[in-house]
Amino acid sequence: MTDSELDLVYTTLCKTLTAEGEAQAPLYLARLALLCMTELDDTQRALSLIEAAKLPTCSVATA
Predict the structure, then answer these.
(1) Predicted TM-score of the model (pTM)
(2) What is the top-level taxon of the source organism (predicted)?
């Protein structure tokens, strides 16, 4: 996927999430993830991507 194609896909996803609404966004993303995993058809790759997508944890120092 080229940078331009990636931008198109990302922009379309953002617009779709906005149209779905904040309340429906988690359900939409879960459904999209399941569809992508089905298309991927590679268990180890899917597990690797799940791990890679984890959000970084923030360490907050307390004074």
Answers:
(1) 0.77
(2) Bacteria
